[in-house]
Amino acid sequence: MLVVMNVHATQEQLERVCEEIRQAGLSPHPIPGSQRTAVGITGDKGAIDPERLQQLPGVVKVIRVTDPYKLVGREFKPDETVIELNGMNIGGERLVVMAGPCAVESREQLMEAAHAVKEAGATVLRGGAFKPRTSPYNFQGLGESGLKILAQAREETGLMIVTETIDPENVTLVEAYADILQVGARNMQNFSLLKRVGKSKRPVLLKRGISATLDEFLMAAEYVMSEGNYNVILCERGVRTFNNYTRFTMDLSTIPEVKRVSHLPIIVDPSHATGKRDMVIPMARAAIAAGADGIMVEVHPNPDEALSDGYQSLTPESFAQLMVEMRALSAALGRQL
Amino acid sequence: MLVVMNVHATQEQLERVCEEIRQAGLSPHPIPGSQRTAVGITGDKGAIDPERLQQLPGVVKVIRVTDPYKLVGREFKPDETVIELNGMNIGGERLVVMAGPCAVESREQLMEAAHAVKEAGATVLRGGAFKPRTSPYNFQGLGESGLKILAQAREETGLMIVTETIDPENVTLVEAYADILQVGARNMQNFSLLKRVGKSKRPVLLKRGISATLDEFLMAAEYVMSEGNYNVILCERGVRTFNNYTRFTMDLSTIPEVKRVSHLPIIVDPSHATGKRDMVIPMARAAIAAGADGIMVEVHPNPDEALSDGYQSLTPESFAQLMVEMRALSAALGRQL
Amino acid sequence: MLVVMNVHATQEQLERVCEEIRQAGLSPHPIPGSQRTAVGITGDKGAIDPERLQQLPGVVKVIRVTDPYKLVGREFKPDETVIELNGMNIGGERLVVMAGPCAVESREQLMEAAHAVKEAGATVLRGGAFKPRTSPYNFQGLGESGLKILAQAREETGLMIVTETIDPENVTLVEAYADILQVGARNMQNFSLLKRVGKSKRPVLLKRGISATLDEFLMAAEYVMSEGNYNVILCERGVRTFNNYTRFTMDLSTIPEVKRVSHLPIIVDPSHATGKRDMVIPMARAAIAAGADGIMVEVHPNPDEALSDGYQSLTPESFAQLMVEMRALSAALGRQL
Amino acid sequence: MLVVMNVHATQEQLERVCEEIRQAGLSPHPIPGSQRTAVGITGDKGAIDPERLQQLPGVVKVIRVTDPYKLVGREFKPDETVIELNGMNIGGERLVVMAGPCAVESREQLMEAAHAVKEAGATVLRGGAFKPRTSPYNFQGLGESGLKILAQAREETGLMIVTETIDPENVTLVEAYADILQVGARNMQNFSLLKRVGKSKRPVLLKRGISATLDEFLMAAEYVMSEGNYNVILCERGVRTFNNYTRFTMDLSTIPEVKRVSHLPIIVDPSHATGKRDMVIPMARAAIAAGADGIMVEVHPNPDEALSDGYQSLTPESFAQLMVEMRALSAALGRQL
Fold first, then answer.
1. Domains in chain B and their CATH numbers?
2. Among partner residues A169, A223, A311, which is closest to B54 by beta-carbon distance?
3. Partner of B35 at 20 to 30 A CA spacing, among B19, B177, C253, D337?
4. In this structure, how many other beta carbons lie within 10 angstroms of the beta carbon of residue C93?
């Protein structure tokens, strides 16, 4: 931490800042400049609140030097996290493809989707049984019967299941059926939910909040990890900007940045990010080219009939086409699909 | 709803769009133009998903004409909602001032703050017992013992209590102590929580999410109201933008807009919006001048010692100064404090 | 400036950083911490590019401590700038009101508007003769004949004239007629234009770019001042965010922040910020309550006939109403109108 | 255009709206609904200002149905624009790579960069002779002597030259030396400059403004084209958002969207978008995978010595590596480099 003093700060004000730092069990290091003085802070025993320093007389600003996260950071764990699940790896060389309908609507719909994505090469089946919707009047999901249909699809196809869980109480139900627990973008800072999935044995797919900074995103993962669950998969799904031709703005530079500061795997969801079927394939390609560890896309056997987000769902045919392109791309990029 | 066809759309494509509309129990009204055709949709019995239309061949875009909300809208209830609580009104002519520390830290701290804000003229005491924090390593609140201290402060001062509730299970505990249930910005789309407070008898203070559109904000209130709780107080507390000299960007134009489209009262929280003590007074003045029904500000007996958000808390002295300015302003604006 | 080293940085890497700093004529101050070392930089003779340091091996980040601006800063000039113009002050105790149509359309239209705003109490007449428009097919202004009409209005009413200038060549023409040169939001970083108005004897009204940070806004003013023209009036007119119910989002917290870091006067334009007639009055009130030194609003004798931005123009009657409210407010705030 | 009436609108108000539409030479089509009436507008002879309608009594909102641009649109010209320049194509199957230093600093520096990028496979050399800088105290470019150095580099290497022009007067100078005129992001709505380059015979590289909507971006191109210059290359270079780990947020979904609505070629500048050397290669790959027609990257023979934006420049070695990866990628994507 560095405390920057006002050009007119008095010696008494400087001394008070140093005293506060000492009382917190840390060491102050005044650096007198030609115009103003700054005070560096060192020590690992104590802790001090930057905002407390900020309001002391004579202080212009306080600059935090270290990152707020620990367990998610690459300084904590230099090697990339690879999550093993039923003999499949998420993270590392191999790309993961999660596909399926936005919501489970019926046994027929899900089975058809499951067989189609399995055949084209996906390894994880997505599908919501509990759907957080902006309007209370929209379809909210089939609930537990949706989870049962997902479990049947796993049995029939061997695909693993990822599905969303929406509150702490709900986790117990969802983890009884799912292989991967999804925390949605709107719940990225639902800390009660994060703590609860942090106690689960299931890996957690954590979607980035629509206006989360990277620090906030990583701190949400830190909540899960700090409860003991180290198997977190990050998912970029677009952030809110002034752009109005996509539902959200996909922020692909988050991928190399996450790779630099964290060891966690990161995948991308181009369906929700763009909200437009025609953009899913080019943006899925772009995500992989930027270094993502996989994608999550919506596929519906009959998108025109979908009860939720049909407009952004691929048909089974275009999903098969996407997989062909992904294979060519992953080869060119030295990765495996 | 209006469906805009491509300039090259065929008669068959147009007919298919009309057929879909009819099948949904609604009436299509084709409007042939010089270049392209649009189709208006009318009827109140059926319902149709705009995204379903959007993907039909020949359709360029679908434009939603009506607002998504019902109960929160002024077309549903033309008169302003005034919430009566212990003989006090929220909404209407009189401005409400909610003040107190960010977090309850101790009996002494809260009592000192409570007496100070009471004396200066506040009628509601704020103070968090459960604190949603970005980092799992930061102070998370005193929990139930914090709620008990709040209840004691009510007994001693006659102030009403507003405090945050963080998940559905937690509501039962909080509503046993608080007069007003606060749903924080991070939980604005925690729909499980919204439904639960919608079943409570306590009024709900709903904070705007940091990147919520006005529609999303109002739809969150709609969730609460659709469960039967019509006493919702909206609270603008800043949105996330590129600005970096305030923590968030206070969006005061939301006030006249909410007044135009909704009947619900709206207050403003300049402490969290700006994150800077020096800005609280000018921005509180601005909020009232823009037409807000009240303010919520942080006051701490000793801000330098605060465990949470101390840097943005007013001292009791500056809060008293704020109240003096608010009185002058409200008189000039024809309102009462 | 502070250089933060990697936790694994070697002694050689640290030494190289110090050497670079010394070669730039400055002094390095290593601050060894428990985990990592930081290097403070002091000295006033030399200068070093932070980006050059940032790429040295072992460096994590470089933190700039001082502000980039000089002439606009309060550390350079502690007293508020008050611009005198024909015996009127801009800045200081008195509020300035600039009003008039978006564009000069005809002699009749402008004269009618000029008399109306004069009578209600405005002291500066606005009106565009050169209009930057998003579309090349929209009305682009009357050009020099518009300037002549403005000069006639000054003669008839005694109002001062503010009008926009759009490129360096155009300045010579505009400064022959106008009292204040306006630089529009789209040209805030048109540096050729800024340098040219910096050589003018006329005060400059500088509008904030729609996505300008405060530093960029102040650096644009610095461009003008660095050419010798110290009479700069800043104007907040909304920034671009995800909000869609106003054209831009008025960022009123910029007012107390500008007052803190700069000595320049700042006014607000609620007409362009909101784009909605109904919001102009509440947001003008809010701006003044936040501490602005004045407002600029659009008034058109017949807004329904306006060739440009009619929807956001006040009628003469509502402008008169605004002035009544402004007088009450300014009295309550201890300012003069 | 569609006019939506209030649920309480009277028959007189409806009639007035229809009358306004008729007076503008267009035809009104009232669509009575169960709750409210909407009025469709058709006709191609007249024109009506949506804002004029918006303020009529009883009108809730006016919805624009058609796009504002003409010449840039795919409905105007269905085939992709391919710009031929010295036997090279920009747009179409082949990808273009523009590379070189941010600013021309000296003959030696530029020649070294030119030979390096030529050898690795670039076909266009970039380098600024006139540099728009946020601070008036920063290096502003070598001016005409910089242009002369660029011309020498063309002679020596056969590379084409793209360089920025900063105001209308300056265009005459720059077009005497450059093959492609660059309009920078800060000048995207400098309409005087757009009109001037619209009269030039040189192709124009138009960078997206940092907060330009897609419509504004395309309307800027429309300005150039409406003056007769149809050779416009669009360039996405990041937009301003709340993200703070990249200088701007690269908005790659703009690529498929531009391809859908316009016939103009679009390239991407990952150097300015990210501001970080380590991100240039992954984001260049992502841009190509998303369908961009080329890239523009900064390469400096000695980035540590660069006078401008050194931190984001690639070394010649990493640029050569980028070209290797681009070749593999373009083969996988069915394009040529």
1. 2-63 (3.30.70.1140), 83-332 (3.20.20.70)
2. A311
3. B19
4. 12
